[in-house]
C-alpha cells in the first residue's frame, strides 16, 4: 500500500511516499480501507521530532481515519465488513489502509460524508474528555477556549453549543474572530488587539467563568486563572506557548481552583474504548441527526501531506484539514 512517512524529523518537505505491506488486523481489530485521514497539530509536532509515537504505534503519522472495513481480526465475527466507519488510531492514518480497534470505531451515519467523518474522532474525543469529563462542564456554564478556529477550538465551540455552554474564544485575527462567531462562539476576542483577561471580565460583568480549555500554557496560565470564577477549572491540552508557568498557589487555594489536563494518544486502549462508547451514546446521536458536523477547512491528496502540514503551520486554516486517499 501507499503511505506518507519520513526518515528524519524536519520541515514539511521531509514527507516522502512509501510502499508498505497492508497491516493485518489482530484480535479486536479491523482493517480499514481509508478514504480520508484527518490532519492534526500533533502530527506536525511528531514530524518535527517532538512527539514520538507511543510504543507499538505505527511510525506513519495520522490519528484519525474514515473508510470501509475490509477485514476483521480472528476473534471478530466479520459482521462489520463492508461498513463505513471512522476511527481513532494511534498512528498510521496517512496511508491506504490502517488497522483500528473495533472499540475505537464509530459507524458513519447517512448524510455524513467520509471527509467529515475523518475529521471528527481526534477533536471529538479530546474535547469531550477534557471539557466534560475532566472539566465537569455543565449547561449554563461559560467556557474559554484559545485557538477558537483550530480543529480543537471549532469542535469545542460546536460541542459547547450542543450541550448548553456559553463559549468565549480567543483568535489571532479579526477574520478568525468573525469565523468563530459564525461557527457558533458567543464571544470572540482578538488577543492581538485586546487583553483577553480584561475582555473576559467585561463579558462576564466581573464574575469570571467556570472553565478554560487551554492549548497555549506558558504565561497564559496565570492569565487564564485570572479569568476563572471561584471553583473554576483549568484544563491543559497543549503547551504551544511554553511548558512552564509561574503560579500564585495562594490564589488556587483561596479561590478553590482545579488544574488538570491530559493527552489522548498514549492512554490505554481500554480508556479509549470507554470514551468511544460514551461518545457513541451522548454525542453520536447529534451526528446522526445532522446537528453536529466538523468545521472543514480543505482536503489535500495523500501525496501532498507535506503541503497539508505547511498549510496548517501557516496558521490561516479555519477548522479541519484532511487528506484524500485515492485508491486505484
Ligand atoms: N491533549 C490532547 O489530547 C490533544 C489532542 C489533540 C490536539 N491537542 C493539541 O491541541 C492543539 C490544537 O490542535 P489542532 O489540531 O486543533 O491544531 P490547529 O488547528 O493547528 O490549531 C492551533 C491553534 O493554536 C493557536 N495558537 C496559539 N498559540 C500558538 C502557537 N504558539 N503556535 C501555533 N498555534 C498557536 C492558533 O490560533 P491563532 O492563530 O488564533 O493564535 C491555531 O488556531 C495542538 O497544540 C495539539 O497538539 C491535544
TrEMBL record:
Question: InterPro entries from the xrefs?
Answer: ADH-like_C, ADH-like_N, ER, GroES-like_sf, NAD(P)-bd_dom_sf, Quinone_OxRdtase_PIG3
Q: Which Pfam families match?
A: ADH_N, ADH_zinc_N
Q: Where is this region: Disordered?
A: 1-22
* GO MF entries: NADPH binding; oxidoreductase activity, acting on NAD(P)H
Q: Which UniProt keywords apply?
A: NADP, Oxidoreductase
What residues does the Enoyl reductase (ER) domain cover?
Answer: 10-323
Q: Which NCBIfam families match?
A: quinone_pig3 (TIGR02824)
PANTHER family linked to this entry: OS02G0805600 PROTEIN, QUINONE OXIDOREDUCTASE PIG3-RELATED
Q: What name has this protein been given in UniProt? A: Zinc-binding dehydrogenase
UniProt source species: Pontixanthobacter luteolus
Amino acid at each position: 500500500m501507499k503511505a506518507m512517512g519520513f526518515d528524519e524529523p524536519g520541515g514539511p518537505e521531509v514527507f516522502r511516499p512509501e510502499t508498505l505491506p497492508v497491516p493485518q488486523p489482530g484480535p479486536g481489530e479491523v482493517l480499514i480501507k481509508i478514504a480520508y485521514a484527518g490532519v492534526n497539530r500533533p502530527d506536525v509536532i511528531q514530524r518535527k521530532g517532538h512527539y514520538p509515537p507511543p510504543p507499538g504505534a505505527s511510525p506513519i503519522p495520522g490519528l484519525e481515519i474514515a473508510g470501509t472495513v475490509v477485514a476483521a481480526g480472528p476473534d471478530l465475527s466479520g459482521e462489520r465488513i463492508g461498513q463505513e466507519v471512522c476511527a481513532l488510531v494511534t498512528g498510521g492514518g496517512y496511508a491506504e489502509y490502517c488497522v483500528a480497534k473495533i472499540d475505537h470505531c464509530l459507524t458513519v451515519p447517512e448524510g455524513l460524508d467520509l471527509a467529515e467523518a475523518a475529521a471528527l474522532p481526534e477533536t471529538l474525543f479530546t474535547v469531550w474528555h477534557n471539557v466534560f469529563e475532566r472539566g465537569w462542564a455543565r449547561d449554563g456554564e461559560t467556557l474559554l477556549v484559545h485557538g477558537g478556529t483550530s480543529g480543537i477550538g471549532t469542535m469545542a465551540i460546536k460541542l459547547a453549543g450542543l450541550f448548553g455552554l456559553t463559549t468565549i474564544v480567543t483568535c489571532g485575527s479579526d477574520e478568525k474572530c468573525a469565523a468563530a462567531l459564525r461557527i457558533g462562539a458567543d464571544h470572540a476576542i482578538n488577543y492581538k488587539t485586546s487583553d483577553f483577561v480584561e475582555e473576559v471580565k467585561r463579558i462576564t460583568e466581573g464574575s469570571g467563568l467556570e472553565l478554560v480549555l487551554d492549548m497555549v500554557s506558558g504565561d497564559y496560565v496565570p492569565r487564564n486563572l485570572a479569568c476563572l470564577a471561584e471553583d473554576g477549572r483549568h484544563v491543559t491540552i497543549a503547551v504551544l506557548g511554553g511548558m512552564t508557568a509561574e503560579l500564585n498557589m495562594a490564589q488556587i487555594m483561596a479561590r478553590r481552583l482545579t488544574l488538570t489536563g491530559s493527552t489522548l494518544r498514549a492512554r490505554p486502549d481500554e480508556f479509549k474504548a470507554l470514551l468511544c462508547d460514551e461518545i457513541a451514546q451522548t454525542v453520536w446521536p447529534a451526528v446522526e441527526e445532522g446537528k453536529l458536523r466538523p468545521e472543514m477547512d480543505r482536503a489535500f491528496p495523500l501525496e501532498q501531506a507535506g503541503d497539508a502540514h505547511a498549510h496548517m503551520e501557516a496558521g490561516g486554516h479555519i477548522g479541519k484539514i484532511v487528506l484524500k486517499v485515492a485508491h486505484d
